[in-house]
Amino acid sequence: MMKYKILKKNDLSAFLDALKERYKIWGPRSEGKQIKFAPISDAGLMCLDKFQNSTMSPKNIFFPQSEIMLSFRRSGEDANIYKETENKPSTKAIFGIRPCDARAFFLLDMIFKNDQFTDTYWFSKRDAATLIGLGCNEPCSSCFCTSVDSHPFGEKGLDVLASDLGDRYLLKVLTEKGEKLLGGLSFLDDPKDTDLAEQKALSKKAEDTLSSKISLENIKSKTVLQLYNQDCWSEVNEPCLNCGTCTYVCPTCHCFDIQDEVYRDGGVRIRNWDSCMSWLFTVHATGHNPRPSKKERVRQRFMHKFKYIPVKRAGEIGCVGCGRCVNLCPVNIDIREVVKTMNSAK
Amino acid sequence: MKNPYVPYPVRIDNTVVETEDRNIKSFKLRFLSEKDRAAFDYLPGQFAQLSVTGKGEIPIGIASSPTEGDHLLFTVNKVGVVTTALHNLVEGDVMGVRGPLGNSYPFDRMKGKDVIIIGGGYAFTTLRSTIVYMLHKDNRPDYGKITLIYGARTPGMLLYKETLEEWSKRDDIDYNVTVDREAPGWTGRVGFVPAVTEQVAPSSDNAIAVICGPPVMIKFTLPVMTKLGFTPEQTVTSLENRMKCGIGICGRCNVGPEYVCKDGPVFTMAQLKEMPQEY
């Protein structure tokens, strides 16, 4: 199915207009100081040329911060019976997803489904979306994707990978969904060999720019308990405020809470993003808390991404190296330094 | 795609206050729909999420055995928001049940072996289910000697008094129910579970022990088991942690890489030795 196409930037508007008949178009937009993925009515609204990545991860497209799951009434024939609410997500084409965030989708696909259960709220939206990723010509200083099995031009989780070649995009079709999206569009050209070579050079250059390199070798070879019992956790947790910013901006953090909300004669069951940084997250009704202090909670976050997920998901690392937590942590905890410490501790 | 978050509607058939402190109540539930009942296919050791509209869900071990018929039994300690709301429901009220969830006790491994059931306090619910299941005439031939050691603080704190009475009259279960200290009218055993286990001294030869109880009971019973020759692989327990989704996704009940809700709640002591003590 490997297939390449060229889309001239001048044709982007016409391209989106043609897709609008079949898809709701989403893309990165600049809103105040933030860059967000949002519905796009016109190609000019996207900031494809001038963004490194969205401020928050795009996970909320499939996993909203707050989402109604079920509803119930308190009286009548069906009183106190939970019912599914309407859940028919729109067919979306999402432009400009960075390869790190796409790999996060790939990971969350593994997490929101197991041998027994499928999270229908995630997959109904995920399955209805086609992702056109955008390779990173210029990774940020806080990016470290190549250390965690991602790449500035990585393809996992995407349907199409776009590479910015200046006045045109080279589109690589990766899945059937991607093929369907691009099918029958007259203004797509076939690429020249030089286009492919140019893309390769961009990819190599981006890879070389990534200065952050961390090794995970010891983390891979040590046991869960060896890593868990390392002395480093007492120091690593010290500056942490347990504010939870890292968990909210993280593209792979997926913990959620389920709560009931009551209205006058009924209510809903909703799920909200939750954070392992919170004391409430694990406390039992009896008051007993298996992760009673900051140390256990900080350790949980790093162990979950770098050991627990790999142990359970065929070696896949639960971090994609996007660097958002590095940029946004109020006390400058740098996940790369933590992982180096984890990896080097005796 | 089947939505795994939708509870089955059930009606409360009856409730029983189990203990003298009136804090533990059993709820016998019936499915509103026959289709739901048929879909709820469970084994002892599994749990379910009980829903009270407007309050939320709580994970509770299933106390009934699938051999007992169409109803489900749950025994609930009143301790938090949802359990308190649940205690206020009455016969005829409609509530939700989502499950069955989690693994079960390892009946495949228990087949052909002696089984020792050791329980303490109100952690006896899924053990009740297990014993009822194994004593059922269709299943009893699958197991060797069945030994029960169950303790509570006082006679009034023992659960399922009628069921215990029935078991005490059977000759195919070694029945050892104990209370912590002498009490008026109590003619049974007296002593803590670890001490009674040492007296009963079940053989570890071709046997599996299932132990559920308060942490302090487990702490002092495990050395006794080791002394009796039980290996960590032969000793099984069930964990509890705060849960929400119950299906291995929402990320809070994990103990190391294992989700108590999905990979557990039943683990062998051998497994627990490789896991952090976050429970």
Note down, in words, how this protein is organized.
The complex is a heterodimer of chains A (346) and B (279). Chain A has 346 residues and is of the alpha/beta class. Chain A has helices spanning 12-20, 99-111, 120-127, 176-182, 193-209, 217-221, 224-228, 232-236, 245-249, 294-312, 324-328, 335-344; strands spanning 3-8, 24-31, 34-39, 66-73, 83-84, 92-97, 129-134, 160-164, 168-173, 256-262, 266-273. Chain A has 2 domains: 3-58 and 67-209, no CATH class; 217-344, no CATH class. Helix content of chain A is 31%, strand content 20%. Chain A has a 7-stranded mixed sheet, with helices on both faces. The longest helix of chain A has 19 residues, at 294-312. The N and C termini of chain A lie far apart (47 Å). The mean pLDDT of chain A is 94. With 279 residues, chain B is an alpha/beta fold. Chain B contains 8 helices and 15 strands. In chain B, helix 6 (193-200) runs parallel beside helix 7 (215-227). The mean pLDDT of chain B is 97. At the A-B interface, strand 4, strand 5, helix 3, helix 7 and strand 10 of A face strand 4, strand 6 and strand 13 of B.
Distance between the termini of chain A: 47 Å
In terms of per-residue confidence, which ranges of chain B show pLDDT below 50 for 5 or more consecutive residues?
none
Strand content of chain B: 25-35%
Q: Main sheet of chain A: which strands, in order across?
A: 1-9-8-7-6-2-3
